[in-house]
Design brief:
The complex is a heterodimer.
Chain A: H1 16-27, H2 51-65, H3 83-95
Chain B: E1 5-7, E2 17-21, E3 24-27, H1 28-41, E4 47-50, H2 55-67, E5 71-74, H3 80-89, E6 93-97, E7 108-110, E8 126-128, E9 132-138, E10 146-151, H4 152-166, E11 172-175, H5 182-193, E12 198-200, H6 207-216, E13 221-225, H7 227-236, E14 245-248, H8 255-265, E15 269-275, E16 279-285, E17 292-294, E18 299-303, E19 306-310, E20 318-319, E21 322-328, E22 331-337, E23 341-344, E24 347-350, H9 351-359, E25 366-370, E26 384-388, H10 394-402, E27 414-416, H11 430-434
Parallel strand pairs in B: 2-12, 4-5, 4-6, 5-9, 6-7, 11-12, 11-13, 13-14, 14-15, 26-27
Antiparallel strand pairs in B: 1-8, 2-3, 9-10, 15-16, 16-17, 17-22, 18-19, 19-20, 21-22, 23-24, 25-26
The chains are: A mainly alpha, B alpha/beta.
Chain lengths: ~100, ~450
Amino acid sequence: MTTTPPDTTPDTTPSLAEVAEIIVSALNLEMSPAEIEPDASLFGEGLGLDSIDILEIALVISKRYGIQLRADSEDNTSIFSSLRSLTNYIASQKAA
Amino acid sequence: MSLSTQPLTDHPTPDSVVAWQPDGPVSRDRFLADVSHLAGLLPAGGHILNICQNRYHFLVGLGAAIVSGRVSLLPSTLTPEAITRLRSETPDLFCLHDGHPDAIALPGLAFPPPLPLTGRNLPVPEIPVDQVVAHVYTSGSTGIPLTHHKTWGALVTNALSEAERLGARGHALVGTVPPQHMYGFESTVLISLHGGAAAWSGRPFYPADITVALAAVPPPRALVTTPFHLRTLLDAGVEVPPMDFILSATAPLSEELAARAESTLGAPLHEIYGCTETGQLASRRSTATRAWHLLGEVRLSPAGDGHVASGGHVEGIVPINDVVELTDERHFLLHGRNADLVNIAGKRTSLAWLNQQLAGLPGVRDGVFFMPDEEPDDHVTRLCACVVAPDHTARSLLNALRTRIDPVFLPRPLIFTDTLPRNAASKLPRASLLALLPRKDKAGE
């Protein structure tokens, strides 16, 4: 089975791998980007990130993609619940 | 003997603005009505863990606790073990929350929806100055947790000293720090009760959220933040609404960041120095001087190997955990911290306590936490740990540690070895520990 490329412009939609690479390099994590599971929690018992990490990553993302992250509720960190949610958020902001 | 009191708030008129919400200002009358309403709903327990995320909800929860003679607990972390300890100290403890109970194992009360405001010119309750209104906690330099009692009179003096130094009266304050942390408690919550300021109800997180929050309150306004949040705000390159001052605490700010903040944001930057035991002690205008100027009537004096604080709002004579040098009666320089203490993102603990937690985990034969060299440029430096625990994986060990210590202290990296590099005296030389760290690829960054 062949994988179909996503139906969006490569310029605007980051891949999971690309965002995983940003997380690993922004935080100097001792792991390879491929080890971040797309749907696993980035917090707590998942990758163990906290709000300090999130602001560091948010800064790199804002520079790379030209978007400013916003907390849409009192839960500041829901965008970062998983690698996939973060990637989808970037894509939605790029499209907006 | 006369029983001395201080009002719940010194905001002078029923229409004075105590706080700001997205739908506008909160008047003193509105605040007092909300306090009275909530006080009537509180369960019987005399101790309250107020974990409200919304700063106005926290303020009302604090007010309701004070007027009903209850004590608000302000622990530095909410790990399961910390909650267990609080419960054993104060068995009647309950939790006030606003929709984020965070799996706290305590009886809970959700912050109630507001009632329509009916009364006018509500009386401001008078509170005895010797009433204990808060408990704050430190890990103690020996690793034994300590509880500190804060009286209403001391907290009022603390807030007034800070407000006077900053000229904060009449300012709207946007805080990026939580109301439960000592710095946020003093500089956004107490100063809105005594000191004439008015806190924004939210706690903006991302740089763009901070700009929106500042724009939502009228000038004069100020930003209450940390070196880390300030750096990310400046680095984000967003347009920040003008403000009248910036306040930073929890870690010393680099001179470079202080200068950049003042030139980019067009406002004076003040740093506050203090600790949980004493509250705020001093401030400085960081671009003008490295010397800290003591607040109000607070004094510092040499004692033994170090210094003690006393006077003003400081209750008793309290040893200072940092290395200070008095330059005159009212000023001092800060030369670093006691080597055993760590402070990460404003949370403080001791290596002795962390090592006890690590050694107490099943399957850990030996282990030690240590602090690597400081990261430059106002980045947050993380702890490292080295362990001998052959039956653990990194994940199983971190999960076990997470129930005991605040996540901000979790080690990065966590290094597994067969033995710790103890010397002949069974000590662990810092150089040997640092040698265990993986080399950074990006030297000089």
